[in-house]
Sequence to fold (252 residues):
Amino acid sequence: MEHSVGQVAGYAGVTVRTLHHYDGIGLLSPSGRSHAGHRRYDDADLDRLQQILFYRELGFPLDEIAALLDDPDADPQERLRRRHALLSHRIAELRRMAAAVETAMEARKMGINLTPEERFEVFGDKDPEHYAQEAERRWGGSDTYAESQRRAARYTKEDWQRMKAEVASWGERYDALMEDGEPATGQRAMDLAEEHRLHITTWFYDCTTEIHRGLGEMYVADPQFKAFYDAMRPGLAEHLRDAINANAQRQE
Fold:
């Protein structure tokens, strides 16, 4: 079958001007002409155009595309394999890009109901998204993380203020027990570790003793979380980690 330049442009989603340009540089010259001298493209021309657009989509310059398509020694099967490999690589790249966008979208759900002024009022310079991003990196694909994000997205300024007050009260009491020299395996420390676990369960997700153990290790290993707890009292992160482990043994 023969096709006019307008038809081919419509099929391929390109402009007539683009086809004229491809003809002018010898990249895609139509196989025939009408009696009036108009370009006429056959099915082989359409196949070549499809290959040209594929390589263009992958970012190949036109001169390299011409060299690829006009190489007399090129193996058609090998060309198909190369196209498949390139396309697979592009798909993988797009998936990674999509995942990065989804990550950014999820991260923005933390405190999404707060205006910038409200967020500063509640958190000051301790932006919760710094911690949310680390949590997403570690547990982003889990049901636990998804539940945490769903709950956090619903909270109002008053909710965050109440949560912050609970954390402050807990921190003052933990500082006091460390001041008194209470060991991490003592009753007071284990009770505050349990309160810490229940706080997470109440506000974010079902924090099992196993999950809590993992969090305790992270509070010591991760600089951001360690700094958060050690700001309440130097050494609190390690003490809490040990108290969490002791409480988990008691619970189990």
The mean pLDDT is 83. The chain has 13 helices and three strands. The beta strands are 3-4, 32-33, 39-41. Residues 76-107 form the longest helix (32 residues).
